[in-house]
Every structure is written in structure tokens, then in C-alpha cells.
Design a protein that fits this description.
The protein is an alpha/beta fold. 43% of the residues lie in helices and 16% in strands. The strands form three sheets. The protein has a three-stranded mixed sheet, covered by helices on one side. A three-stranded mixed sheet has the order 4-6-5, with helices on one face. Strands 7-8 form a two-stranded antiparallel ribbon. The protein binds zinc ion (ZN).
Length: 228
């Protein structure tokens, strides 16, 4: 583990919960398809996974992400300075990644545009990111599909780090919550990378499904999409 990282988390823990001894911490870097960071408590231990893209990040950025994750864990307010610092770093890195992605996807038929006639998928992503993910997910390439697929309304393509939404949904008669629901589902795939369980790919874990049900218009969205 990177030297000093544990100290950073201990400092931020002290700052958020003065006078409380921090629990045992396990921190690891993880190759998420995206810039993603997670924290959870298990058997009294805090398990922290940081995107390997943060491996070379300067100390103030690591301090910021430590604060954000611990504040989230203990339901304390997140200080704005930390969010700004973290996001500034991520977006800089995002830019280099995007340039690389553009080269990868150039000429690829599936990628068209995020701005549709009725909905702008980048805007939808940003709103959901702020509302449900503390703004912590880095935005992948967002695109309407070229065709009007009805069977596959959305998917996340990890090879190109792209969320593709069927153009069928880009119509004013489609309520915004239906588009949001499809994007939200794909964002959960970013948050929960596919795990192997035995030889079967566990694509929608119990944790995934319970988070999906938190979506404010979960039932209406499913209902609407069924009759589409
Ligand atoms: Zn899915």
C-alpha cells in the first residue's frame, strides 16, 4: 500500500469523529472501468477501494477523497472544498482519458451523440450523479444508439467506457423519468463492476437491485418501458 495513505485516512477520521478510535482500515487500489471509489463497513472493518487512476494522485487529492468517503460513511456533511479539489483532479484526468477514448471510438458506428432531440444524455448523467452518487462517478461517453432498438434500451460498454441508450427513448412523449431510469441502471453498473460468482457472471447483485429500487420513479418507469 502506498506509504502515508493510512495516515491520511486516520487524520480525516479524527477530523470527522474527534475522540473516536478509527476502526481497522483496509485500503486497496482497484482497476474500475471508471474513476470510482467505494467504502463499506464489514465485520467492524472499513474496506476502501480506490480507483487505480488515483494511485499517482498528490496528497491533497487523496486527503479529499478520504474525507468524502468517510463523511459518506458516517453521514456527515461533505466539505465543499474537498469536493471541488477532488473533481478538479478527476476532470483533468478525464480529459486525457477522453482524448484516448475518442481515438478508440472514431469510426465506430454505435457512438453518435449525447444530445438528442428531446434529451441530452450528458445532462441526465450529471443530474443523476449529483442526486444519487454524491457526484462521484466520472462521466463515461454518453451516446444515443444509431438504431431504434426496443429490446435493448440501454447498455454499458466497458471496452469503450460508453453508456449507450436506445434512440427509441429520445422523444418528447417519453417521460424524463423513463430516460433517467435507464441511465441510472447503467450508472449502477459503473458503481458495481461485474463480479465472478462461480463460473456465472453475477450482473445484477442483490446490492445492485436494492439500490435500483431506490430510484424515485422505479415502478412507473418499469411500467412505461414495458408498454413502449
Ligand atoms: Zn443491467
Amino acid at each position: 500500500m502506498r506509504e502515508g495513505l493510512l495516515d491520511i485516512f486516520h487524520d480525516e477520521h479524527r477530523h470527522l469523529r474527534p475522540g473516536t478510535a478509527p476502526p481497522e482500515l483496509k485500503i486497496e487500489f482497484f482497476a474500475f472501468a471508471n474513476i470510482n471509489n467505494t467504502i463499506r463497513m464489514r465485520d467492524g472493518k472499513l474496506l476502501i477501494r480506490l480507483s487505480d487512476l488515483l494511485e499517482g494522485a498528490p496528497e491533497p487529492v487523496l486527503r479529499a477523497i478520504a474525507h468524502i468517503l468517510l463523511a459518506k460513511m458516517y453521514r456527515k456533511p461533505i466539505e465543499r472544498d474537498y469536493t471541488t479539489r477532488y473533481r478538479r483532479y478527476v476532470s483533468r484526468h478525464d480529459i486525457t482519458k477522453k482524448a484516448h477514448l475518442l481515438r478508440q471510438v472514431r469510426g465506430r458506428k454505435e457512438i453518435t451523440t449525447a444530445k438528442g432531440r428531446a434529451y441530452d444524455l450528458e445532462e441526465v448523467f450529471d443530474v443523476l450523479n449529483a442526486r444519487h452518487f454524491h457526484g462521484l462517478l466520472a462521466r463515461p461517453q454518453m451516446t444515443w444508439s444509431r438504431n431504434h432498438a426496443r429490446r435493448l434500451l440501454g447498455h454499458y460498454d466497458p471496452a469503450h467506457n460508453a453508456i449507450v441508450v436506445s434512440r427509441v427513448l429520445d422523444q418528447p412523449r417519453v417521460p424524463r423519468f423513463a430516460v433517467e431510469y435507464i441511465v441510472f441502471h447503467e450508472m449502477l453498473h459503473l458503481k458495481h463492476p461485474v463480479r465472478l460468482r462461480g463460473s456465472r457472471r453475477c450482473v445484477h447483485s442483490a446490492e445492485f437491485q436494492s439500490e435500483e429500487e431506490q430510484f424515485p420513479h422505479f415502478k412507473q418507469a418499469k411500467q412505461f418501458l414495458k408498454q413502449l
